[in-house]
Design a protein that fits this description.
With 82 residues, the protein is mostly helical. A hairpin with a 4-residue loop joins β2 and β3. α1 crosses α3. It is 51% helix and 11% strand. It is globular and about 45 Å long. The protein has one domain: Helicase, Ruva Protein, domain 3 (Orthogonal Bundle).
């Protein structure tokens, strides 16, 4: 939960937010990438978030997938797929 809280804060700092399915996808990625001898770190979560943000903005105008007047980018489940 702490890593997802960090991810949500990191997203907000980058003018993004995750929808519910995006959050579930993040939980899944954290679980899949966590190893017994190598726990998931904040740095790895930041890398996952950077990849998702890049995927969401790749080849599209930022405003097409945004919400509200502040043009917040919404990260969906498909943005977390590898």
């Amino acid at each position: 939960d702490e890593l997802v809280t960090f991810a949500r804060t990191y997203a907000a700092e980058n003018d993004c937010r995750m929808d519910d399915m995006g959050i579930l996808a993040l939980y899944t990625m954290i679980g899949n990438n966590q190893k017994e001898n190598e726990p998931m770190t904040v740095a790895k979560v930041k890398e996952i978030m950077d990849d998702a943000i890049h995927h969401a903005t790749r080849g599209k105008k930022r405003t097409k997938r945004s919400s509200g007047k502040n043009k917040i980018l919404i990260l969906h489940e498909k943005d977390f797929e590898q």
